[in-house]
Amino acid sequence: MVIRSKKARQSRELPLLSYNLKKLSEEAQNCRNCDLWQNATQTVFGEGSPNACIMLIGEVPGDQEDLQGHPFVGPAGKFLRAKLEEVGIEMKRVYLTNAVKHFKWERRGKRRIHKKPSVGEITACKPWLNAEITALKPKIIVCLGATAAQTLLGRSFRVTQHRGEFLESTIAPYVMATVHPSAILRAPDEDSRHEQERQFLADLKKIAAIRV
Ligand code: SF4
Predict the structure, then answer these.
(1) Which of 142, 148, 173, 176 is surrounded by the most beta carbons within 10 Å?
(2) pTM summary value
(3) How confident is the model over 102-138, as pLDDT tens digits?
């Protein structure tokens, strides 16, 4: 099933979506619900065990994710995977996805530089994220960065004010927002990076401590 119709875009609900992660991933390969597919290599859908209890949501696939077709395989993804391991969260407990499933970028010289998706693009892609949550029913959802947090928790949500807190939400028993690992990698100096990394690990340790 392909979502591309104006009707689907207007409704923002896609009742015909199956709630099976494998099928959803296949269906999303043909999505044309916004224009981002045109400059991207492929849809980068979420991945992980269908029994995962923790869903981590980023913003949008990056350059490497776009080329390889898998989420969180670039530098920020490798950093995240290393930190999850460090706090004792096994990858078999984790499902990784993004709020938007196609890479948005602009060319600078030979490089493709990530661009933040617009509200319209995030809205167009939200049915896929909603379907992933419905299919997986994660016990814990972690929003990585403002885009994921505002997609699920509302546009007034501020990660800077509420990072690391467990939030009241109907979408999962435990919901938390923290920074996106790419923000840590972009820290202006070593001290700042070290401090951000320390806080990020503290947030992940709270997740690791939940027994579900
Ligand atoms: S970004 Fe999302 S809504 Fe837009 S074409 Fe890709 S999968 Fe569809």
Answers:
(1) 148
(2) 0.92
(3) 999 999 999 999 999 999 999 999 999 999 999 999 9
Nearest in space to 140 (alpha carbons), one of 112, 111, 171 = 171
Residues 6+ apart with CB under 8 A from 43: 28, 29, 31, 37, 69, 101, 102
**Ligand 1 centre distance from Cα of residue 183 (Å):** 24
- 168 C-alpha to center of ligand 1: Å? 28
Please give the C-alpha separations between residue 174 and each of 142, 152, 156, 168, 169, in angstroms, as whole numbers. Answer: 8, 13, 20, 8, 8
- At CB < 8 A and 24+ separation, what contacts does 111-114 make? 111/63, 112/63, 112/66, 114/60, 114/62, 114/63, 114/182
Per CATH, the architecture of 6-208 is what? 3-Layer(aba) Sandwich (3.40)
Q: Which residue's CA is minimally distant from atom 3 of ligand 1?
A: 125
Q: Which residues contact 74 (CB under 8 A, 6 or more apart)?
A: 62, 63, 64, 65
